[in-house]
Design brief:
Radius of gyration: 18 Å
Number of helices: 13
Strand content: under 5%
Distance between the termini: 56 Å
CATH topology of the largest domain: Endonuclease III, domain 1
Oligomer: single chain
CATH superfamily of the largest domain: Hypothetical protein, domain 2
Helix content: 55-70%
Structural class: mainly alpha
CATH class of the largest domain: Mainly Alpha
Number of strands: 0
Number of domains: 2
Shape: globular
Order of helices and strands: HHHHHHHHHHHHH
Length: 211
């Protein structure tokens, strides 16, 4: 088995990643003290973590939390229950027709979720994106927060792109390819950089919103 990537397990891992970012980039060295401690944001891995990510696609955090609470109350957060649920049951808890189809398809695929822990990042992502409703961004978010992979970045995330534009005073928002190039020196802690960029995005947008 190939050597597995570094994992983020504790706040100490986040601090180590921040120290690396500050050492390799003067912009990070200047910005990180403004952000305070970056969040760990770890969650248990498995079907429920991916189902939660699917539920949250393209809706507000509050709406996703409400639907997820209804799924939990109905006992529909494990694979066996999703496989057995009919369309009316899934719609009754607030799932759209496409999301109900995605969740049932993922449940029916019977992926070895524990086995993902032993795969390199690219192989784990490939297995996830083969499932219905899971694109690269969703797979990368799963690896980052459910598996704790330290170097998964999600360069397609618009908030990360916008944060990088403001933080580095770029003339335009970098696309995924440009953002990956910018992030190369941040290896092997790009998941910490993503946490930092999300935190900076909230800070920068708050400043832009003041008069």
């Amino acid at each position: 088995m190939a050597d597995l990537p570094r994992l983020i397990l504790t706040a100490e891992d986040i601090a180590e990643g921040c120290a690396h970012l500050a050492a390799v980039c003067p912009v990070w060295a200047r910005v990180l003290p403004q952000l305070g401690p970056l969040p760990l944001r770890r969650r248990p891995d498995g079907f429920a973590a991916m189902a939660s990510a699917i539920v949250g696609q393209q809706i507000s955090v509050a709406a996703a939390a409400s639907i997820w609470a209804r799924l939990e109350a109905a006992g529909l957060t494990d694979q066996a229950a999703l496989r057995a649920a009919d369309d009316d049951t899934l719609r009754a808890v607030g799932l759209s027709r496409p999301k109900a189809r995605y969740l049932r398809g993922i449940a029916e695929a019977r992926l070895d979720w524990n086995g993902l822990r032993d795969l390199p990042d690219d192989q784990a992502i490939a297995q996830l994106v083969a499932l219905p409703g899971i694109g690269v961004w969703t797979a990368e978010i799963y690896l980052k927060f459910a598996l704790g992979r330290a170097d998964v970045f999600a360069a397609g995330d618009l908030a990360l792109q916008e944060a990088a534009r403001v933080m580095y005073d770029l003339p335009e928002r970098p696309g995924p390819k440009a953002l990956r190039a910018l992030a190369e020196p941040w290896q092997p802690w790009r998941a910490v950089a993503a946490r930092g960029l999300w935190a900076y995005y909230r800070l920068a947008k708050g400043r832009e919103g003041t008069t």
